[in-house]
Amino acid sequence: MLITRHAEAVAVLSDTRYVPPPVRQDAPAGTLSWLRAQVSRFSTGEVHAERRRLVTERLATLDPAALRQAATAATLERGGDWPDVPTAVLGAALGITDEKRLVGAVAAAAAGYLSGEAGPEADAAVADLVELLSGEGDPIPRITILLQAHAATAGLIANALTHAEPGDDIDGLLRETLRHDPPLKASRRLDRQTGDEVTIDLVAANRDPAVFAEPERFDLTRGPAPHLTFGSGVRPCPASAHALALAAGVLEAVLRPEDAR
Ligand code: HEM
């Protein structure tokens, strides 16, 4: 079933009858498939609640304002070459100093994280991340944060840049980019009662004329709008403030380097 209306999307995302499609549970430790069986993103019920709690607890130690500042500084330092910045800044905030190793491993593991398409390179990257992050307790919440953030945050920044005009208000630009051009275009669920797969088309739901006036128009003056780009209901993104801070920090340095210095 394909869902395109905003109200139906909210209803599915709020109903525990719909769960993320289950992932393989018997993969060898240290592989990407194994990792997918350890994270909140693909788990349900009490296991999901506990894993989400651990991630949220970690996120609470990261100050969005400090992430924003660090993202601006790192982008300026690299002369505007921003794509590694969100992961490097998050990694540094989580205590990882070997940026090159971290960014390489996160990029390789993140490529198959949502789809589950694992190859030897992704498996090796997961093993490397486990090693890199094992010094300080359970590495899984921090690996979850890094992998969830990687492509989504870069996608948000890249999409915002396609709309950016000199002098734009960066927070408004990000808000409307989230609604109009979500980096993740769809969310999938399984109906536990019928076994049916449900796909929520986030682009369509974010342009539902029942909720958004002139939905196709990219309108910086729209103000806060109830887009579903950070999810909704039972398991929304727990890091929207962090994601927005990283994105705004990068955009400030790219769009207004003189003011950001
Ligand atoms: C600092 C950057 C980010 C971090 C650390 C992060 C972290 C997470 C985590 C841990 C989850 C799983 C929550 C759970 O299982 O309960 C999640 C879910 C989600 N994230 Fe984020 N995220 C980031 C950036 C983004 C961005 C930029 C977007 C989109 C613009 C996004 C959209 C989502 C959505 C839609 C979900 C829910 C998926 C679902 O309902 O199945 N995230 N995020």
Automatic annotation (TrEMBL):
Cited PANTHER family: CYTOCHROME P450 YJIB-RELATED, P450, PUTATIVE (EUROFUNG)-RELATED
Family to which the UniProt record says this protein belongs: Belongs to the cytochrome P450 family.
Protein name as catalogued: Cytochrome P450
Annotated organism of origin: Nonomuraea guangzhouensis
